[in-house]
Amino acid sequence: MDDLFGAGRDGGDAIEDDGDSEDTADAGSARRAASPRSPLAVRMRPRTLDDVVGQQHLLGQGSPLRQLAAGTDATGPAGPSSLILWGPPGTGKTTLAHVIAKGPGRKFVELSAITAGVKDVRRVMDEALTARDLFKTTTVLFLDEIHRFNKAQQDALLPGVENRWVVLVAATTENPSFSVVSPLLSRSLLLTLKPLTDADVEGLLLRAATDPRGLGGKVDLSAEALGHLVRLSGGDARRALTALEAAAGVAFGDADDADGIAGEAEAGPVTIELKHTERALDVASVRYDRAGDQHYDVASAFIKSIRGSDVDAALHYLARMLEAGEDPKFVARRIVISAAEDVGMADPTALLTAVAAAQAVQLIGMPEGRIILAEAVVHLATAPKSNAAYMGINQAVADVRAGLGNGIPAHLRDAHYPGSKQLGHGQGYKYAHDAPHSVATQQYPPDDLVGRNYYEPTANGAEREISTRLERLRRIIRGK
Fold it and tell me: Alpha-carbon distance 115 to 151, whole Å?
């Protein structure tokens, strides 16, 4: 199995190509990409933009990325532009940098903002200027985690970017508007990468199983194992390939144990089953199809458990969705809707909690986001319930769709534009704040809806007091 699973990374992670010639650089890159001791994610790294999985919104013909990868300028005749790639982990930021570096007359240099400092940046800039002037070679500087650079460190990049000594490809998982200095932003193209879709990840895994650079057709993936790997990848290509490699190792180990023959994989493909992925990842497969019945069934059970005030069941379904790789933003949206639909005015603070949780999850991310979502679920499930506001808007919409509510009383119409007074607009309007308790007796709805009640509060929670107050308000407004 040494040809499938190496003990560590080889020269494919070197900081810099020698750049002596285009052919030498390309040959070196090819050898490193094909090394059987490199991790699967490194071996499967695309060589051209056409091999890139996902990000099709950035890869159209004539796009800046394609022009840059081809060695032509993306913005004008002066030379190649610099890029800031913003997106979640495993979406192809490093891959795009490597592809761009394969363009004609390119040299690839990689720095990490975690370990590099101003001295390292200046060294790269000096070497890039020399390479440009003496060898007609453009340096592609890939800077990972640029958001970890402070202002002084980012400012050190400006001369090289502005004078185009380097093509800077900076990667970040944080919003560049807050983490990258304005002068650097203004001199770079900002491209936003999206998480890979399930179809993207599935295609990548199937390709890796058969590609000679990957597992070379020595494994087959069962449908259950494939679905499990896709779910747990979370749209992260690197995580998906790492998990596939680990599962393949477990599958080969089982095959050797079962047959007592070393190298059984040579006789034919070994099937990676669900049990292999579970053992490799130490995560039990949750029967949950994000695009099928289980997605809707679990989500439905989740909301109905909150509505039914069963906090324990609600937490179970929350955990089930999150462990299956459901998008936490989807869960947060359902919680916000439930707060308004099912809790409503019986506990108006529930909506505040739900909205705060949705915003916090986007800020914090997973796995800590599960704590925030759990707090919101507990609040909603244990709160008094009322769907009165929900039913009220439904009835109002039904009347509008039925053609009711014709016109607007003249005294409520806009009286600020010339000629409005001649039309009677605003005449007789009573300013509510001039009336006792800031409630005036006058008609607000259209004539055909006078006396129609849409909101009927319950006696649950805070609506108990609202019900008493609403009765008094309606009596004053309608003059009864």
Answer: 16
- Of 35, 3, 46, 30, nearest to 237 by C-alpha is 46
In terms of DSSP bridges, do strands 270-272 and 219-221 run parallel, antiparallel, or are they unpaired? parallel
Distance of alpha carbon 466 from alpha carbon 385, whole angstroms: 14
Spatial separation of the C-alpha atoms in residues 244 and 251, rounded to whole Å: 10
**Fold (topology level) of 293-382:** Zinc Finger, Delta Prime; domain 3 (1.20.272)
Pick the range with the lowest mean pLDDT from 100-114, 122-136, 315-329, 369-383.
100-114
Contact 324, 359 (CB under 8 A): no
And the tokens for 419? 């000629």
Which residues lie closer than 8 Å to 308 by C-beta, 6 or more apart?
none
- Range 426-453 burial, b when 16+ CB lie within 10 A, else e: eeeeeeeeeeeeeebebeeebeebeeee
Q: Is 250 helix (H, G, I), strand (E, B) or coil?
A: helix
How many angstroms separate the CA atoms of 377 and 305, rounded?
10
User: Minimal CA–CA distance to 41: which of 283, 217, 243?
Assistant: 243
Cα distances from 172 to residues 107, 113, 158, 347, in angstroms, run 22, 10, 17, 40
Looking at the structure, give the CATH architecture of the domain made up of residues 400-477: Orthogonal Bundle (1.10)
The structure's pTM equals 0.51
β-strand partners of 85: 171, 191
Task: Outline where 260-410 has alpha helix (H).
Answer: 274-281, 293-307, 311-323, 328-338, 349-364, 369-382, 388-401
d(CA 195, CA 322): 17
Contact 209, 221 (CB under 8 A): yes
- Which has more confidence, 276 or 22? 276
Which of these CATH numbers, 1.10.8.60, 2.60.120.460, 3.40.50.300, 1.20.1070.10, describes 198-281?
Answer: 1.10.8.60
Q: Which CATH class is domain 46-192?
A: alpha beta
Q: Is the dihedral of CA 229, 230, 231, 233 positive or negative?
A: positive
The 3 state secondary structure assigned to 261-299 is CCCHHHHCCEEECHHHHHHHHCCCCCCCCCCCHHHHHHH
Q: Where are the domains of the chain?
A: 46-192, 198-281, 293-382, 400-477
CB 266 within 8 A of CB 229: no
pLDDT tens digits along 19-70: 333 333 343 443 344 456 788 888 888 888 888 888 888 887 878 778 777 7
